Structures are given as C-alpha cells and as structure tokens.
Amino acid sequence: MKTVYLLTGPPGSGKTSLIKQAVVMMKGRAGGFYTEEIRSRGVRQGFRLVTLDGDSAILAHVDIRSRQRVSRYGVDIMSLERVGVTALHRAAEHGDLVIVDEIGKMELFSASFRETVARIIGSGKKVLGTIMLAANPWADAIKRQEPVNLIWVTRANHNQVLREIQDWLTHE
To answer: Which residues, including other chains, have CB under 8 Å from residue 79's CB and lie 6 or more apart?
Structure first.
C-alpha cells in the first residue's frame, strides 16, 4: 500500500478542504501544517501557514519585501522554516500522519523544506499533502516516487477522493 497521498488539481478544487477533513478523522494523531488565504475586503492579500498544534505564520503577503516572490507576493522563507518545517519534524517524530499543505512554488524556495519533505516521504510514515499542478523538476520528481499515490482533485470527484482517503487512513 502507498504511504504517501498527494492531492493535485486546479486552485479552488477542494484540496485543502479534503486535508482538513482528514485531520478531523485522525482525532489529534496528525501533525504538520496547512495553508490558508489571507483576505482583506474580499481580496487575497497573502497566505498563512497554520500548524495542527496551533502555531501560525505568514508565508507570503503583498506587503512582504523579499527576493523570493510568487506573482505579487513576497515569500517569508524564515517563517516557513521556523513554523512549517519545525511542524513537519514534530509530526514525523510523534504523529501517525504528516500533513503537508502544500508543496508549492512558495515552499520550494526553501532548501530545508525540500530536504525535510524528501526525508519524510522516504521514511515510510503516512503523509497526506497537496502538491503543485504546474511543472517543476523537484515537485515532478516527488510525484514519481514509489510510495506516492498522486490523486487529481476536482469539485466533481471531491466525495470520491474523501472516501478513498478515509479508506487509506483506516487500513494499515
């Protein structure tokens, strides 16, 4: 059985919603982080990392000045490493399931993030995450690894994917 489930698909397809539903199913036995939008007056201003143990940090924002940029957002690599990578280490050591939402352009600026994700994926630990749809040499190599089950998510197959995740989480 595959130990890593990575969800991919277009923005707004429900990938993070599926991650959050899986976290509820795990009843405290999952660790890691998910990403949520920061909005002001209905306009997206950035992205926040939220760990499953209650920490959070701004990952990217229109007001962040950084050499690492994705579109109009400056990326805060130090916050990603301090909060996100630390949460992944804790989850790999103590959790039954490691959540990584997401493996995307912003996160891939960090060598520490890439190394941590690669190590966890190769560890045999159960991992549920999201991964960028766009082509990227590093992300594409992760998608092809033996323990990875890559799942395409759309609004139409959301419930089917949720059932598949539930089955995977409840069977060893």
So the answer is: 49, 57, 58, 59
Consecutive H or E run containing 120: helix 111-121
In whole angstroms, give the CA distance from residue 74 to residue 63.
7
pLDDT less than 70: residues of the chain = 172
CB 104 within 8 A of CB 134: no
d(CA 136, CA 85): 20
* DSSP one-letter string for 2-39: -SEEEEE-STTSSHHHHHHHHHHHHTT-EEEEEEEEEE
For the chain, how many structural domains are there in total? 1
What CATH number does the domain containing 163 carry? 3.40.50.300
pTM: 0.95
Per the listing, tokens 């007056």 go with 41
- Give the relative orientation of helices 86-94 and 111-121 as an angle to the nearest 10 degrees: 20
Q: Is the CB of residue 97 less than 8 Å from the CB of residue 126?
A: yes
Q: The domain containing residue 80 runs over which residues?
A: 4-170
Q: Is 163 exposed, middle or buried (0-12, 13-18, 19+ CB in 10 A)?
A: exposed
